[in-house]
Amino acid sequence: MTLAVEIRGLTKRFGGQAAVDNLDLAIPCGEFHALLGPNGAGKTTTLRVLAGLARADAGSACVMGHDVARDPIAAKRVLAFLPDDPMLYGKLKPLEYLEFVAGLWGIEAGVAGERAEALLQVLGLEEKRGERIDGFSRGMRQKLALAGALIHDPAVMILDEPLTGLDAAAARQVKDLLVARVRAGCTVILTTHILEIAERLAERISIIVRGRIVAQGTLAELRARNGAGESLEDIFLGLTGAAPGHAAA
Amino acid sequence: MPRLKPPSWPWLLAQEARLLWRSGGIGSWMMAAITLLFFAAVHLAGWLLLRQHSPQQWPRAAPGAAILITLFTVLLVLAAAFALAVRALFERRDLELLISAPVPTVNVFAVRGLGVAVSSVAAVAIFVLPIANMGPFVGKWWTLAAYPALLSIGLLCAAAAFAGTLLLVRWLGVARARIVAQLTGAFLGAALVLAMQLEAFLPRNVRAGIAAWARSDAAMGWIGADSPLLLPARAMVGEPWPLAALVALGVAAFAAVVRATSAGFVRAVQDAPIAAAGRSRDRGGRARPFRHGLARVVIAKELTLIARDPSLFGKALLQVIYLVPLFLVLARGSQAPELMAPALILLASGIAGVLAWISVSGEEAPQLLGSAPVSLERLRWLKVGASLLPVAALVLPFLAWYAYHSPPMALVVALFLAAALAGSAFVHVWSTPLGATRDFKQRARQNVFLRIADNLSSLGWAAACYLALQGWWFAVAGVVLGLLAPACAWAAGRRRLD
Questions:
Q1: Inter-axis angle of helices B337-361 and B407-431, to 10 degrees?
Q2: Which end of chain B is more exposed for a tag (fewer CB within 10 A), N or C?
Q3: How far apart, in whole angstroms, are the C-alpha atoms of residue B356 and residue B422?
């Protein structure tokens, strides 16, 4: 089985405190994987190491077999990273922005233009193509950033809270788009605090607490280990120690 | 956009140029017209100058003055390069996108560096290049050498600034390096003025020794017509060998720094969030008590945030550095303190204006304040008042000096200083809407009127103070100008606030 993402013994400290602590994670190609955890659990740090935006203090991280520390260019070529608060150039127009991102991934201008047009249409932004991004709403920015992540047709997509700021229709549109990408063979790894999204979309779920994976598997496997019939929310709150029972105790 | 192969460095450079051009701030027809008029005027002045004079021999004819101007220009460019390098390394959020893309980081770094090189010479270029452009029209083609010469100075300074900033990152960590680099830039900007003032503090025999050295043959190697310090000036006037040497030096230094430090650049970008996390950690100190009462909590919050904001702290310290030469002049007593009073007013009200503008317009939680059951005008007053407190503390030593030497003069200076600070406060309270930090730079460009009004008010009070100290009744004109700006701010801004 080819692994899209393979993390071994990853450790990342901020000051003296470990944000990610000897973390292991293996995600096969073509999987829709949800990485869940409470605030400050180490999800974003793990994703930033994968995207080459943070250095690991120990351990290794590979994307499609390419070590992100040793061969970052090859790893980045197959990867798209959408941060939770993506930066967009306010002075550019959406088409220009997408062509710029495509250029960073080495896509020729003609191909980039066609893909950009198609993505704008799919995400319902075609009417905004003549406007500068600084006039966009939060939801439109998020959709454009997602289009930027999709434009080079990545093998692995890492999405940090991709549905933040989207209305119900736009969120549905994005979810459908991601599912279609997974069906086409793309690996999607997302973090979210909306557990229903993970419950409905993810094939496997990893729950991370204080920088370590405390549970991993399909929803059925998690239920089997933690008590059949429980919702993901119950399992999550139980594992992270945030359940009302824990609080009362 | 030209069809360059993405993501080659020329392609990245073209993207950088496009972004620089679009964020240039010429957003309205009015600004475009003013810019056009300015450039037309400078070109006309250049044409008139070159028609009557031929400054090609000037560096060799007056080497002392040429070296001084060269040093001043290079320090100015270097100061700008440091400020821009800090911004390029730590403040441009698009670095995350660029670093996560499969682009060799050396290309990203090189393009950032070129952007810094070009931007750092911009302030000099807008005055020099229009003159250079007019050279061919009067048969003096050599003036076009200013283009490669200026770019080479920019490359040298950008290389020095990037190398210096990244060395600071290695020695001090990202958080401290950022502030120290900003202050280094500011200090370099003021260095020449400081050095000239410090020279006057030297003992008489040391000064005589310096003067004797300046007349010696040994000194001629440094300040004579063949001095290596004249290289940039001689390159600017089109001397072939100095120009070739300067271009080679600039390109070689830039290439060497880019190759040697691009890995450090990536590490600095990767470590920037760690620095932020480190800054935000509780260091165990007791939190400032936010006592009951609107005025107390707003002032406590503003002062706490001013003190904890490294860039704001840097900007304020920058202004303090520029106050040092002023203090030296006062302490020497060789020049009339009457001349220094308006400078003090201009500087103090400048700092007050910056702090007041940032405090009101750069609010991090405007929705929170807007939804609070208190008058927004009162909030603005409190925020502006809080931002004036550090300025008041800053000018107190100067007022104490005036009071020690001449109490009546101190009274006049204090009066006009208070009026200038109050004027600045009125302008910001009446015409600055509460805004979010993320839109801060955009609003700063939009609100040209506010900046002009604030500067006019300061200028009016400074002039009034000087004229009053001279005993001239014309001081009233300055007072009118000082009052006019807040009045205009009131008339123009009050209706659209709240």
A1: 20
A2: C
A3: 11
Per-10-residue mean pLDDT, chain B, length 498: 74 83 64 82 89 82 84 87 83 79 88 90 90 91 94 95 87 76 74 67 74 72 79 91 95 94 80 55 48 72 72 62 63 65 84 79 70 75 85 88 88 92 81 60 59 79 88 86 81 58
Report strand pairing: A204-209 vs A17-28. unpaired
Nearest CA in chain B to A104: B7
- Which chain B residues are Cβ-neighbours of A87 within 8 angstroms? 93-94, 96-97
End-to-end CA distance of chain A: 44
Beta carbons of B278 and A14 less than 8 Å apart = yes
Contact B398, B460 (CB under 8 A): no
Three-state secondary-structure class, residue A132? coil
Query: Which strand ranges, in their side-by-side order, compose the sheet holding A156-160?
Result: A79-82, A156-160, A187-191, A32-36, A204-209, A212-217
Q: Comparing C-alpha atoms, which of A224, A228, A207 is closest to residue A216?
A: A207
Q: Count Cβ atoms below 10 Å from residue A232 Cβ, excluding itself.
A: 22
Chain B residues with beta carbon closer than 8 angstroms to that of A98:
none
Chain B residue numbers touching A146 (CB-CB < 8 A): none
CB B461 within 8 A of CB B436: no
Q: For chain B, list residues whose CB is within 8 angstroms of any CB belonging to chain A.
A: 3, 6-7, 11, 15, 19, 22-23, 93-94, 96-104, 267, 269-271, 273-274, 277-278, 281, 442
Q: Name the closest residue on chain A to residue B104, using Cα atoms.
A: A73
Q: What tokens appear for B431 in the block?
A: 């015409």
Closest CA to B188 of B81, B311, B116, B112: B81
In this complex, the residue of B103, B269, B274 whose CB is nearest that of residue A104 is B103
CA distances B302 to A229, B295, B354, B392, B444, Å, are 52, 11, 14, 15, 20
The Cα–Cα gap between B268 and B162 comes to: 11
Residue among B196, B185, B204 nearest B89 (CA): B185
Measured CB to CB, residues of chain A less than 8 Å from chain B are: 14-15, 48, 51-55, 72-74, 76-77, 79, 81, 83, 86-87, 89-92, 100-109, 112, 134, 148
Q: Copy the structure tokens of residue B24.
A: 């240039």
User: Are A15 and B277 in contact (CB < 8 Å)?
Assistant: yes
The Cα-based distances of A1 to A55, A75, A217 in angstroms read 27, 18, 17
Compute the nearest-CA separation of B159 from chain A (Å). 24
ipTM for the whole predicted complex goes beyond 0.90:
no
Query: Please, which residues have CB within 8 angstroms of residue B251's CB and are 6 or more apart in sequence?
Result: B152, B155
State the virtual CA torsion across A58, A63, A67, A69 in degrees, nearest 10.
-60
